[in-house]
Write a structure and sequence with these properties.
The protein contains 16 helices and no strands. It is mainly alpha-helical. The protein has a single domain, classed as MFS general substrate transporter like domains (Growth Hormone, Chain: A, Up-down Bundle), CATH 1.20.1250.20. Helix 8 runs antiparallel to helix 12. The protein starts with 6 loop residues before the first helix and ends with a helix.
Length: 390
């Protein structure tokens, strides 16, 4: 199916809701904890967001397969905008966490439906290259968001960040209404009840062709979520970085990820998808091991952690889009549900990883490095499982 050249921009902007929602307010953790007299508790709001994404995506998949692609994402963006406004008005930390979970329920539509639209339009290498173009747009969020958050914090309070996110959600809803084409015609929609939905998810969950690459992507991303949840305490509290310097460091790692996704698109024109995926997973394992070694040395300067972190994030640029395409390749009419299952798995692992980062926090980079290495090892094992003969 032909698609307009601007479509990856719109889909990337919708997929960027999650990283934008997380990365923009990371520099505000100290301010949020001070406002609510809750030292060290801000990561709870990250875990709440991940949990909301997990639940939201499992709901959005069947809706996208039954109602088409436009309606679920339109209503999802409206819910995201309203809940983000609630975050800006939250009177305490637990209210903030609740509104964050509600925002994630709505924002999850952008992630699920965007992947399903890619599957509607292309498969195989073509889909992986289209996914990489989405990552180009989505990757701008973690590069720009922490810096934007730091600028807003310098001129206003942390609540202004959530008002800005509410405006982003409202604009996304308008863009969907005006521009997003419907890529799932009525004759291809699946009208199934709760029993049929459960049967679909059981079929997906027991299909190794889906489960192995989905776990390859999800476990690798769980390491990224540990980095997201733990890095403010490590670099701002332990190493004394200012929010602005932290934002610059965070942006460098995000730039490594987005740059790798674009090199990935170039490599896919020359090498098989499974080979490029294998390179990415192995690179992630080596980089994570190097990060743990550096963390064990307890460097006096946090910048020593940047090179292995940059290698980890760059390796994910060769892992995440290719594994996602491999997972969805055989799902056909169940693409929406499969996309939802994959996203739910990914962010459930992220919630567990982010929660573990908060529980294990000891003021050093060791818990973060250990969790990243754990995710990388699971990703390696899942990729080998996927290649094993049936």
């Amino acid at each position: 199916m032909p698609f307009p050249v601007w479509l990856p921009v719109l889909l990337g902007a919708l997929t960027a809701v999650a990283p934008l929602s997380i990365d923009m307010y990371l520099p505000s953790f100290p301010a949020i904890e001070a406002a609510f007299n809750a030292p060290g508790q801000a990561p709870v709001t990250v875990a709440a967001f991940f949990a909301g994404l997990s639940v939201g995506q499992i709901m959005q998949g069947p809706l996208a397969d039954r109602l088409g692609r436009r309606k679920p994402i339109l209503w999802g963006m409206l819910l995201y905008a309203a809940a983000s406004a609630g975050c800006a008005l939250a009177p305490d930390l637990w209210s903030l966490a609740g509104f964050r979970a509600a925002a994630a329920l709505g924002g999850s539509a952008g992630m699920v439906v965007s992947r399903a639209v890619v599957r509607d339009l292309a498969t195989g290498t073509a889909a992986a290259r289209l996914m990489s173009r989405l990552m180009l747009v989505m990757g701008a969020a973690p590069i720009l968001a922490p810096s934007l958050g730091g600028v807003l914090l310098s001129i206003s309070s942390w609540r202004a960040l959530f008002w800005l996110l509410a405006g982003y959600g409202a604009l996304a809803a308008v863009a969907v209404w005006c521009f997003l084409p419907e890529t799932l015609p009525p004759e291809r929609r699946r009208i199934v009840g709760l029993r049929g939905i459960a049967r679909d998810y059981l079929t997906i969950a027991t299909d190794r062709r889906f489960l192995a690459p989905a776990l390859t992507s999800g476990a690798g991303m769980a390491g990224m979520f540990a980095y997201i949840a733990a890095s403010p305490a490590v670099f701002i509290d332990h190493y004394g970085m200012t929010p602005g310097i932290y934002a610059a460091m965070f942006g460098m790692n995000a730039a490594g990820f987005i740059g790798a996704t674009q090199i990935n698109a170039w490599l896919l024109a020359r090498y098989p998808l499974d080979r490029v995926l294998r390179w990415g997973v192995r690179g992630l394992g080596c980089a994570a091991l190097l990060l743990l070694v550096v963390a064990l040395l307890k460097p006096a300067n946090g910048w020593w952690l940047l090179p292995p972190l940059l290698l980890c994030m760059s390796s994910l640029g060769f892992t995440v889009p290719n594994a996602a395409v491999e997972a969805l390749h055989h799902q056909g009419a169940r693409a929406g549900s499969a996309s939802a299952f994959m996203g739910t798995q990914q962010f459930l692992l992220g919630a567990l990883s982010g929660g573990a980062a908060a529980v294990l926090a000891n003021g050093t980079a060791l818990p973060m490095a250990g969790l990243i290495l754990t995710g990388a090892m699971i990703s390696l094992l899942a990729e080998r499982w996927h290649r094993r003969p049936a």
